[in-house]
């Protein structure tokens, strides 16, 4: 657990992996670990609890992990995963006011992600990561108190874009450097997996 305010970490692993032929990216292997195992190893020490946002059969994940399925029909994207995480925290960790989230397909996530998002928030309502001129809206820090507003955005306004909704809520961007590699490099395709293996070969501690 870090010195940041009490925070539950949510790994977003509900994507359908369309660009990898429908592969469950959480179970894709990189250097002897699944992408989910890598994400858990990096993120669990940073929070007071860890959740996995995913749908389908929970038995495909390790039994010690807490899987949170979407509670909205038709799996309307990562905002639904964030919503489920926020409501789970409110119900099961009522003393905790913050949730940090990160996608399962980023194998080099910063080991100080939660602490730096808290520090970079600087009084703003929420924060999200940025690197290489890009915002990474699902790598963010969310107040649990926003859960009702998020539910309204999803169910009444039809919002599906994490970046748009975060901006509307006053998110600030916290910048990471991309040298020697981008910590938010994500594996969307088989070619990306090859690149990730090359990064690890050049930087074994990545």
Summarize the structure.
This protein is of the alpha/beta class and 206 residues long. The chain contains six helices and nine strands, in the order E-E-E-H-E-E-H-E-H-E-E-H-H-E-H.
List the helices and strands and how they pair.
Layout: E1 7-12, E2 29-30, E3 33-34, H1 35-43, E4 49-53, E5 66-68, H2 78-92, E6 98-103, H3 113-121, E7 126-131, E8 134-143, H4 147-155, H5 162-168, E9 171-176, H6 190-202
Helix pairs in contact: 2-4
Explain what you see.
The structure is a single chain. By secondary structure, this protein is α/β, with parallel strands linked by helices. 30% of the residues lie in helices and 22% in strands. The protein contains six helices and nine strands; from the N terminus they run βββαββαβαββααβα. The protein has helices spanning 35-43, 78-92, 113-121, 147-155, 162-168, 190-202; strands spanning 7-12, 29-30, 33-34, 49-53, 66-68, 98-103, 126-131, 134-143, 171-176. A seven-stranded mixed beta sheet has the order 5-4-1-6-8-7-9, with helices on both faces. A two-stranded antiparallel ribbon has the order 2-3. α2 (78-92) runs antiparallel to α4. The chain is globular. It starts with 6 loop residues before the first strand and ends with a helix. The mean pLDDT is 93.
């Amino acid at each position: 657990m870090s010195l940041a305010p009490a925070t539950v970490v949510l790994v977003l692993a509900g994507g359908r992996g369309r660009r990898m032929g429908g592969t469950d990216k959480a179970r894709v292997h990189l250097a002897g670990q699944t992408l989910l195992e890598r994400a858990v190893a990096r993120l669990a020490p940073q929070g007071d609890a860890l959740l996995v946002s995913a749908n389908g059969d929970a038995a495909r994940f390790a039994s010690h992990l807490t899987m949170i399925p979407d509670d909205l029909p038709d799996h309307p994207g990562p905002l639904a995963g964030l919503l489920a995480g926020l409501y789970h925290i409110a119900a099961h960790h009522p003393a905790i006011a913050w949730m940090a989230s990160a996608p399962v397909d980023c194998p080099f996530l910063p080991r100080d992600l939660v602490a730096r998002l808290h520090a970079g928030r600087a009084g703003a309502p929420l924060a999200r990561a940025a690197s290489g001129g890009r915002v990474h809206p699902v790598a963010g820090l969310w107040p649990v108190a926003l859960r009702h507003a998020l539910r309204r955005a999803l169910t009444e306004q039809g919002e599906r874009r994490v970046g748009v909704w975060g901006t509307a809520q006053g998110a600030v961007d916290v910048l990471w450097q991309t040298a020697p590699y981008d910590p938010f490099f994500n594996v969307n395709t088989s070619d990306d997996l090859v690149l990730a293996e090359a990064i690890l070969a050049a930087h074994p501690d990545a």
